[in-house]
Amino acid sequence: MKDLHVSWDEYHRLIETLAFNVYDSGWKFDSLLCLSRGGLRPGDILSRIFDMPLNILATSSYREAAGTVQGTLDIGKYIASSRPDSLKGKVLLVDDLVDSGLTFKRVTEHLRNNYKGITEVRTAVLWWKSCSQVEPDYYVEYLGDNPWIHQPFEVYDVMRLGQLVAKVEGHRKPE
User: What stretch or stretches form a coiled coil here (predicted)?
Assistant: First the structure.
């Protein structure tokens, strides 16, 4: 299993391909829900492309060792949305990847048990790892060797404010 390093350009191409895959399937959804943090960027771009409100549910299981060790799954109590009535009907649930599949399983159960207006949930990810217990409805890349994925924004997982200040000050033009 080799690590997979993804550039910003590749990352955006993957999100655009995911949007196309959903569109090309012919399935029409009523609501878009992304899981934070990994699904925020794909969810934001899909909400713009499909011109619909973005609903956000906070989930967390990768907290230890700069986000490299999975712990217990926490699911937020509330869904953030600029339109509280926008989570209903057919829901497209977006995340960056499906690894074990535990998050999608638990969140889907959570939605069905707590949001009676939801009639169907389909899942969309950039990467589907073969170690997953669930198969996403939409994905861009199937990763049979389960690599650790290094996404372009992960540099901020270990960057602290002092490092950012030094970096920005190093790029400033002298006055």
Answer: none
Which among 1, 15, 8, 5 is positioned nearest to 149, based on CA atoms? 5
Q: How would you classify the pairing of strands 54-64 and 69-80?
A: antiparallel
Question: What is the structure's pLDDT at 125?
Answer: 98
Q: Which two tokens stand for residue 156?
A: 């901020």
Answer yes or no: are the C-beta atoms of 66 and 88 closer than 8 Å. Answer: no
Give the whole-angstrom CA distance, residue 119 versus residue 100.
25
Assess whether the previous peptide bond of 172 is cis (omega < 30° from 0).
Answer: no
> What CATH architecture is 4-172?
3-Layer(aba) Sandwich (3.40)
Contacts of 18 (CB under 8 A, 6+ apart): 42, 46, 124, 125, 126, 138, 139, 140
